[in-house]
TrEMBL record:
Domain of life: Bacteria
Keyword Repeat among UniProt keywords: no
Organism encoding this protein: Pseudomonas azerbaijanoccidentalis
GO molecular function: translation elongation factor activity
Catalysed conversion reaction: dTDP-beta-L-rhamnose + L-arginyl-[protein] = N(omega)-(alpha-L-rhamnosyl)-L-arginyl-[protein] + dTDP + H(+)
Function comment: Protein-arginine rhamnosyltransferase that catalyzes the transfer of a single rhamnose to elongation factor P (EF-P) on 'Lys-32', a modification required for EF-P-dependent rescue of polyproline stalled ribosomes.
Identification of the protein by name: Protein-arginine rhamnosyltransferase
Length: 385
């Protein structure tokens, strides 16, 4: 998008991130910060309160220093003892985090108030369209605005770097590139095995899924990045202290633990797999760009309000599927998120595999017709000024 003349004078952005869910919050803001720098030429400071969580995603991070540069982004430690900092032209509070009071005063002291946005959680609920872009609260004379990522026109879209789908398609059409990547992670995929990635929260329904895979006539290789689901994997295997590199075989299923990888490597992992179980927000979006069938473990919220979000997304996602395929994938998602046995739902899903594969590709292309989240933010700023 050509840069508006006014934007050349006002292009310093601050993004604030409090790490709540280990990696999801920092995963989204780190992708966004890098894309704003690389594709829109803005200067970005990323304020993070937990550099140890960030280090897993960016090993070059020095967790002991307060200011550093990583991939063009100025990374600042958001410490309890806040030091004075000049407010930027655009201020993003990711996922409704509360900005430091001294920084809010700095925003109000600017001659021209900054654009202050609350970048909210991703949701497919209908009300999001009506609230996206609306003014929220004010601090003194500084107005805050709601900004909602989303799947429909009238929202802020999804994070998607320029050329992402083209790179993914090229990779998926190159068996040798996939083989080399998997081998770099220590994975030797059997020619006839289906490949599944498993990244999820704790889930009592996992044992039933692994039982189904173990008794299947088709061999399955399950790749489990280090994370919260490992305890359930250990219980099913009857082992303890699973670590990266561990590999166990039971009947038709091979379970292998992978190390925590960088975001671009995780993208490639999703692109390699036939089916991706993902969680939260960041991996959920990346699995959709992989254009492969997926299973989402949504972050659990009080009073089960997350289930409304799950149903809202399902209502959009299953459009265009035949009724049997729609019932199969919806049943699988609901049972998984309820921690129930999913054996029958998995078998039903497998019966409609070709249709679900084609649908995943179609959904990916449909979502790519929207402006990506970073571009939508820049356009919102351009309209605001």
């Amino acid at each position: 998008m050509p840069e508006m003349p006014q934007m050349k004078k006002n292009r310093r952005w601050d993004i604030f991130c409090t790490v709540v869910d280990n990696y999801g919050d920092i995963g989204v803001t780190w992708r966004l910060a890098r894309q704003l720098v690389a594709e829109h030429g803005v200067a970005v400071r990323l304020w993070v309160d937990d550099l140890r969580a960030f280090e897993r995603m960016c090993p070059e991070i020095d967790i002991h220093i307060a200011q550093q540069w990583q991939q063009g982004v100025e990374v600042r430690h958001w410490a309890a003892d806040w030091q004075p900092a000049e407010a930027a032209d655009v201020v993003i509070a990711a996922f409704a985090c509360q900005l430091p009071s001294a920084y809010m005063d700095a925003m109000a002291e600017r001659e021209k108030p900054p654009l202050w946005m609350n970048l909210d959680y991703l949701s497919a609920e209908d009300w999001v369209i009506g609230c996206h872009g609306l003014p929220s609260v004010k601090f003194k004379h500084v107005q805050k605005f709601f900004f909602f990522p989303g799947f429909q026109k009238g929202t802020g879209g999804l994070l998607r770097e320029s050329g992402l789908l083209e790179r993914r398609q090229q990779f998926q059409q190159d068996p040798e590139a996939q083989r080399a990547f998997l081998q770099s992670l220590g994975v030797d995929r059997a020619p006839a095995a289906q490949l599944i990635s498993l990244f999820a929260y704790e889930n009592t329904g996992l044992a039933s899924w692994l039982d189904a895979l173990a008794s299947d006539s088709t061999p399955t290789h399950v790749l489990v990045p280090e994370g919260r689901i490992l305890g359930d994997v250990e219980r099913w295997l009857g082992v303890s202290d699973l670590k990266a590199g561990a590999l166990h075989v039971r009947e038709a299923v091979t379970v292998q633990v992978l190390p925590f990888v960088r975001q671009d490597q995780y993208d490639q992992l999703l692109w390699c797999c036939d089916f991706n179980a993902v969680r939260g927000e960041d991996s959920f979006v990346r699995a959709q760009w992989a254009a492969r069938p997926l299973l989402w473990h949504i972050y659990q919220q009080e009073e089960d309000v997350h289930l409304d979000k799950l149903e809202a997304f399902l209502a959009l996602y299953v459009k265009g599927l035949s009724e049997p395929a729609r019932e199969a994938i919806s049943g699988l998602w609901r049972a998984w998120n309820a921690g129930e046995k999913i054996t029958d739902h998995w078998h039903s899903t497998r019966k409609h595999w070709p249709e679900l594969e084609k649908h995943a590709q179609t959904w990916c292309l449909e979502q790519a017709l929207q402006a990506d989240l970073a571009t939508a933010l820049v356009q919102f700023y351009g309209n605001w000024i």
